């Protein structure tokens, strides 16, 4: 979806990396995150201050190969700190991000294990709760649900940007995860970052990335820094005339797409999507709805929604993968224009389902 914005900018965001540049593993030996490019750290802080979606003062910035690596780094840091002989339980409230279970159990770590539904977790044991807000897949704002003495929380805030939801206040949590993928659309650069309060936890997260990949690509970091600088510039009143405000541009696209989706199923009793309340956004200085990156669609009871969509050549992800039932599916709202329009057209043609 973001491709149209960056195409319109043309070569304005091009930059050159010379052959002798960024040869070392190290970026800043005086920084706790020694492989973090100073330019990227500065642009991360600038962007959050411009948008107002997260507190960056007195936070350690840690860069990762996407937020996926940072999720594992956070689980390692929190569980390793406990020095518990048993794996720490990792939970999340359904519908939860579909990759949490697989990521947690993939290496069969002795440090942590997937324990499932946060709503039903009743063990008197240490736990880590993953809180995605706005949530993937359903787009709702989330808070921790377990809230016990032995608990630790990781806030995955990949979608807490103005094109998706109202920025009601700067997030202020112990561990906050963000990603270029969902902020700017540059998923292929594989850049994520964490804002971490506790220095010991931050050091352990850095240690995980050091052992795992010996840092993060300098080229990707420099590209991400350049992109963030342009986005921050686009939000300024004194910006160049030809530079559209990135978040306003992106929100307008999201509004248009959600309107198309809702119109496509307006008179269709087979499908349902959530409605979201108006909230005042401190960034846009206006009231706005939530426009999630994914549509969490529900079919009539008893229907396998993924199977129904597949029969009409629409690729979705079943609710089973998110800890919910087969009557739900997640549909991406971020595809290219022609793909999204084709999706809406095929969806509009579904009027009845045979046995």
From TrEMBL:
Keywords: Pyridoxal phosphate. GO terms for biological process: amino acid metabolic process. It comes from the Eukaryota. The keyword Membrane does not apply. Gene3D superfamilies: Aspartate Aminotransferase, domain 1, Type I PLP-dependent aspartate aminotransferase-like (Major domain). Pfam families: Alliinase_C. Residues 1-350 form the Alliinase C-terminal domain. One of its GO terms (molecular function) is transaminase activity. Belongs to the alliinase family. PANTHER family: BIFUNCTIONAL ASPARTATE AMINOTRANSFERASE AND GLUTAMATE/ASPARTATE-PREPHENATE AMINOTRANSFERASE-RELATED, TRYPTOPHAN AMINOTRANSFERASE-RELATED PROTEIN 1. This is Alliinase C-terminal domain-containing protein. It comes from Buddleja alternifolia.
